[in-house]
Amino acid sequence: MRQRLLATAIATAVVAGLVTGCGAGDAADSKIHLTIATFGEFGYEDLLKQYQTEHPNIVVTQHKVGQAAPHHKELFTKLAAGSGLDDIEAIEEGYRAQVMAKSDKFNDLSKIGPADAGPDRWLPWKYDAGKSKDGKLVGYGTDIGPLAMCYRTDMLKAAGLPSDPDGVKALFASWQSYFDAGKTYVQKTGKPWFDTSTQIFNAMHNQHDVGYYDQSDTLVVASNPDIKKDWDAVTQAIADKESAKLVSFGNEWQAGFKTSAFATTVCPAWMLGSIEQNSGPDNKGKWAVSSAFPDGGGNWGGSYLTVPLQSKHPKEAAELAAWLTAPQQQIKAFVAKGPFPSQVQALQSPELQNTTNAYFADPKTGALYAELAKKLTKAQYKGPADGQIQDDVFAPALQAVEQGKSAADGWQQAVAGAQKAAK
């Protein structure tokens, strides 16, 4: 599951219009007030201003928090209470199954949304993942997370490792070659190779056809050999001192980019904004993105926009959600913050193909991720407690190993925690 986060984990309310403090249904004027709840960086700030300019009868307030986990915790609490939800609620793929299990609490966008937001807009697997098991379209797809690898060219070069695009392909050809390169890097520099074990583990995990659950929603953490294999590989890398032992998206992790605390990090498209923001202007041109990814890449991340039944303006909310997930808007969101479009026309667009990011050593990020996205034909199935297992079970278990717990004890902690979460 993707954990798209802000530079800080402090909850904020961002008003995209010219007014502040206005809630939905404000009776002070005749305008329609809509609210949208997101997490991390969707790249919607300027888009929401544009929408209000083009729709002067609409005022939009964006509620944005840093992390996916607290956003969804609050969402489920408000669903249970029957009140308090925003007109549009963003859903991250790791929590999709939990939302689909409550699909009766959401509008069917195929019935209330505009006609041009049909299935041909999205990659087929992305559109299908927005539907509940009974065929109800609960969410419009926003982005996807094709996997690349980001690395510091200057730090690899200083360690005597290849740093050019062709040279790093051998380093990132497989997880074995990646960890072997990391051992060499640590031996030559005495510094960590990657930022955090949780990021590495999550990327590895998302490459498998079967993850924490099988298609029948049966928990398979203890019986899936791929999960244990990934665990063993990552915890061995921890033992080899390849991890900087940072908590993903925490304050020290954010500072680690600026202080050159690690040389590589897994880099789904939505990570680009975080790298630039956290690394700062002094490191411009030092980070590079490689399309080579261990064992062939995959998808990590992606979200959806939903309209809960609680919305007082469902039709207008659906129209805004459809507009935000149209190809032209998703391209602008990618340029602004990095979430990569899931729309067919966007992927084929010369505008996207020619999009560059001057912060990176090889700025042709649009074409690079578009090529990776075209290779994706499906995403890993996410079961009922998938997001909770990733964020609240495996992440702390890996962090415990980084702090000295044995890999065997950490594994038992993870298995037990997953079983508890799945009840």
From TrEMBL:
Signal peptide: 1-24
Matching InterPro entries: Bact_solute-bd_prot1, SBP
SUPFAM superfamilies in UniProt: Periplasmic binding protein-like II
UniProt keyword annotations, A-Z: Signal
Protein name: Extracellular solute-binding protein
